Amino acid sequence: MDQFLFYEINNLATHSVSADGFFKYISSNDEFVILYGGIVAALLTFKSFVKRIQMTLTGLSAGALTWYLATKSQFFLWFHHARPYVVLSNIHLLAKRDPKQFYASFPSGHAIFFFSVATAVYLVDKRLGIAFYVLALVLSFAKIYTGVHWPSDILAGGILGIIIGYILNWVFEKLIAFASKNSSAKQEALS
User: Fold this and answer.
1) What is the distance between the alpha carbons of residues 47 and 44, in angstroms, rounded to a whole number?
2) Which regions of the chain does DSSP assign to beta strands (E)?
3) Is the pLDDT of residue 77 over 60?
4) Count of C-beta atoms within a 10 Å radius of residue 60
5) Model-level pTM?
6) N- to C-terminal Cα distance for the chain?
7) Contact 134/126 with Cβ under 8 angstroms?
8) Most CB within 10 Å of its CB: which of 12, 95, 104, 131?
9) Cα 166 → chain centroid
10) Angle between helices 151-190 and 109-124 (to 10 degrees)
């Protein structure tokens, strides 16, 4: 099933120069698209400073955690899951091959990042969060389209990202409430 879905999506490549260029571009610049989009959205959308801080901290923490898992830990290598271009010969590869990443396909670190940030946004602002989920889906689709991930990599990364987003949001919600409570108590003591 995974291979079938991979071929269905990846075989869309090379039929349109515009689509290939679009998916190749967003696949290679995806972190910047979602990170900068999130920061701009937080700054322009929310009137509440606390909401801006909560969403920004959750998104940045999700990015930092994903970066750590992908680059400094052996998390992805535990699964030893080969990328499609390592296993299959007749695919449309629109991305660079990185020999260090040949067997670090599952789960998709990018999908973890995209969906954890989308969840962080969604939990603060539902409408904007839905837009971020759509963006996460498009960016994740690009990873299959360009030949670097299996659909199961994306699905597992998406689920893990949503869980991480909820946990980080809960943590920062508690920290902000604690800081706010302590700040109010200090102000009352000074009065």
Assistant:
1) 8
2) none
3) no
4) 16
5) 0.79
6) 66
7) no
8) 104
9) 13
10) 40
Q: Classify 81 as helix, strand or coil.
A: strand
Q: Which two tokens stand for residue 91?
A: 């695919």
Helix H segments across 46-103? 49-67, 84-87
Phi, then psi, of 38 in degrees rounded to 5: -65, -45
Contact status, residue 144 vs residue 7, Cβ threshold 8 Å: no
Can you tell me the distance from the alpha carbon of 64 to that of 86, in angstroms, rounded to the nearest whole number? 28
Evaluate whether 135 touches 161 at the Cβ level (below 8 Å).
no
Length of the chain measured in residues: 191
Of 118-122, 145-149, 176-180, give the lowest mean pLDDT range: 176-180
State the DSSP code for 94.
Answer: -
- Tokens (6 digits) for 47: 């009137």
* Structure tokens given for 174: 């508690």
- The residue extents of the domains of the chain are 2-89+107-181
d(CA 11, CA 8): 6
Instruction: Tell me the three state secondary structure of residue 14.
Output: coil
Give the rounded distance of the alpha carbon of 125 from its chain centre. Answer: 17
Task: Name the residue among 168, 149, 187 with its Cα closest to residue 141.
Answer: 149
What's at 182, amino acid-wise? N
Tell the burial category of 138 from Cβ atoms under 10 Å away from its Cβ (0-12, 13-18, 19+): middle
The tokens describing 28, both together, are 């290679």
| Residue-wise burial string across 113-134, b where 16 or more C-beta atoms lie within 10 A, e elsewhere | bbbbbbbbbbbbbeebbeebbe
